[in-house]
Amino acid sequence: xxxxxxxxxxxxxxxxxxxxxxxATPEQLLEIMDRVGINRAVLLPEVxxxxxxxLSSPEEILAITQHFGERFIPFCxxxxxxxxxxxxxxxxxxxxYYIAQGCxxxxxxxxxxxxxxxxxxxxxxxxxxxxxxxxxxxxxxxxGCYGLxxxxxxxxxxxxxxxxxxxxxxxxxxxxxxxxxxxxxxAGRNGYPKGPIRPGGRLPQLFAxxxxxxxxxxxxxxxxxxxxxxxxxxxxxEEHQDRLxxxxxxxAPSNDTPLARYxxxxxxxxxxxxxxxxxxxxxxxxxxxxxxxx
Length: 294
Description:
By secondary structure, the protein is α/β, with parallel strands linked by helices.
């Protein structure tokens, strides 16, 4: 059993990226899932223009999940600036609609706003009141990138974890996972730092302190964090096995899935316990998203 907490898709390939690739269609995702051994996958809508060349609405994601059945799990998504661009906007009525349609979480939040922007906090508050977990992308600065903006050490994320203690935050992206070590450097903050991990990283501290912080291990950033120093990665996954989640962040049909191979090898070689492997690859997601599994 494997549940992937982070995939994207569109019904039609549409506009290409600068590299000539497009999002994978649902049919292409299913081919990848069958090849890798992924039973079910969360589909994340893209609603903020900074985050994608090709937007996908929650309604489109719901239509896809309804058509393809249990293989896909829908998330909703709301840009914090929607409907008058005000922190007083009632986002709850929108969330209630999406929850009634079967959405299990919200994200990926990619709006390029400060983590503590009142409009973002309005969205967090609405999600917390409905026990709806959120997947977020952190951007390194305002402008020229996408994702909620936080600085080195993630002080604004910590503020949000404190202010919204019942909201489950699923952390993702390079600036998030770079904080697993204390010495990532300026270039490494939005990249893929290499080499051994010394003690003192901010993420281990935040995981130890805040039970509402979860780790989305998708994409190169999550995989790099737990594989660049394998011995550290195995210990980190054992220690935080209750709040780490397998994912791939497949966007294009050509995307690789190295994390699946890495976790499978780790458990088969006895470097990761079977208990931790099961939690990371599916049990945590099933519990967090309240999934009914046959």
